[in-house]
Design brief:
Blueprint: E1 2-3, E2 6-14, E3 17-27, E4 30-36, E5 47-57, E6 59-64, E7 66-67, E8 70-71, H1 80-88, E9 92-100, H2 104-120, E10 129-132, H3 154-163, E11 168-173, H4 180-189, E12 193-196, H5 203-212, E13 214-217, E14 228-231, E15 237-240, H6 242-249, E16 254-258, H7 269-275, E17 281-284, E18 296-300, E19 303-307, E20 312-315, E21 322-325, H8 329-338, H9 344-358, E22 376-379, E23 385-390, E24 393-397
Parallel strand pairs: 2-5, 6-9, 9-10, 10-11, 11-12, 12-13, 13-16, 16-17
Antiparallel strand pairs: 1-24, 2-3, 3-4, 5-22, 7-8, 14-15, 18-19, 19-20, 20-21, 22-23, 23-24
Helix pairs in contact: 2-3, 8-9
The structure holds zinc ion.
């Protein structure tokens, strides 16, 4: 890893658009100056020349379960570095390692081990843990182990929070379950982002959740309801917005979609992005333990999965559920352009600025303004990755 002093950018991402011909100066791991390219360019080992390329801020993923066959459960602790390296090499410079539903012993041990790992990480920035489960709807379990799901339980939540030593940054639960509102209040009171997911909540139940502190919808449209017809107490069929409709209707809610081309239909990303602008829509990889694995059958880390040659993974429990994605966030961002037709500028916003805002990291992440962390990607004209820079250090150079 070599330290850089200058990055010469052909087109540099800023919130307002791509700026042409910019010299970024790095000091102490941050952006310290932003100038037009000077007539006499700096040279030497500390200069990276990307005058023929796009430079965009490092990607921020709110949900990474693992990769290469390993999860962030304690049993795989020897492989955490490899998982992080896999995502970092693809430009995910900040992310939330995510734990899915498991029995209490597995969860508490994993939270404790992962919390220590997050605070010690020196490669990617791991600003905390995303706990997805175990307070989820059995109706919407998806690839989560239905036998390990739990009803909302305050004392259990306290034990999980204690094990995690303050490192839980986001928690996904089903707000319609009895006792959920108390959990939402407790989590939101600690500054933890509370998300609805794996949930069959109605619009009314979502509104109650939002009043209690819920602010997010996890992988909207997957393991959650789209607007649909539902019986009303009066006896006729009415319309029920579900989680996706609640996200559309409520400005207080932000949400993520998994943009691998299989989970969330790419055609719906541009209208949703427009509706939720500027920061209310986030794309995530929801990379599963089998991200980066060749086709085949896998088990471990709370997941049984089959990786298919077409690039998706299904749950081995009955094969009917997508089991997280096999991609990295860079691929989701590229697909926002190639499959959804967004501009590169907009796609970067969904994969970097918006999640940084959501995780309350926007001062230092999700942009390359002065004072921001010097985390950035150099992309070729075809959006392929040329280089990854973290804290001003070149970590990947292809
Ligand atoms: Zn999920």
């Amino acid at each position: 890893m070599s330290a850089l002093t200058h990055l010469l950018a052909g087109r540099l991402w800023s919130p307002a658009g791509f700026a042409e011909g910019v010299q970024l100066t790095f000091a102490a791991g941050r952006v310290s100056a932003w100038d037009a390219l000077p007539p006499r360019l700096p040279s030497g080992d500390g200069v990276f020349d990307a005058r023929d390329a796009f430079v965009v801020p490092g990607l921020v993923d709110v949900q990474v379960n693992g990769g290469l066959g390993w999860s962030f459960q304690a049993q795989h602790r020897a492989h955490f570095d490899a998982i992080v390296a896999h995502h970092l090499a693809a430009g995910t410079t900040t992310f939330l390692p995510t734990l899915v539903t498991a029995d209490e012993t597995t969860l508490t041990e994993s939270l404790a081990v992962l919390a220590d790992y997050c605070t010690k990480s020196t490669s990617a920035t791991l600003p905390g843990i995303h706990l997805e489960g175990p307070f989820l709807s059995p109706e919407k379990a998806g690839a989560h182990d239905p036998a390990a799901l739990r009803l909302p339980d305050g004392p259990l939540l306290q034990r999980l929070l204690t094990a995690a030593k303050g490192q839980i940054r986001m928690c996904t639960l089903a707000p319609e379950l009895p006792g959920s509102l108390e959990l939402i209040r407790a989590l939101a009171g600690l500054g933890i982002v509370v998300a609805a997911g794996h949930s069959a909540a109605t619009f009314a139940q979502m509104q109650a959740g939002v009043e209690a502190g819920l602010s997010f919808v996890t992988h909207a449209g997957n393991a959650s309801d789209w607007p649909h017809r539902a019986p009303r107490p009066e006896g006729f069929w009415g319309s029920e917005p579900g989680l996706v409709g609640s996200l559309l209707a409520d400005d207080r809610l932000s949400g993520s979609v998994i943009l691998d081309g299989f989970h969330f239909h790419p055609a719906l990303v541009p209208p949703l992005a427009k509706l939720k602008a500027p920061h209310g829509l986030i794309i995530t990889s929801d990379a599963s333990t089998v991200a980066g694995c060749p086709p085949g059958e896998y088990s471990g880390g709370g997941l049984l999965a089959t990786v298919h040659a077409a690039g998706y993974a299904t749950s081995g429990r009955d094969g009917r559920w997508l089991a997280g994605s096999t991609i990295t966030l860079l691929q989701a961002m590229q697909r926002a352009v190639t499959l959804s037709g967004l501009s590169l500028h907009a796609a970067v916003g969904l994969a970097s600025a918006a999640p940084a805002h959501h995780l309350r990291l926007a001062q230092r992440k999700g942009h390359l303004g002065i004072g921001a962390d010097a985390d950035c990607l150099v992309l070729n004209e075809d959006l392929s990755l040329r280089a990854v820079i973290v804290g001003g250090r070149l970590t990947t150079d292809r």
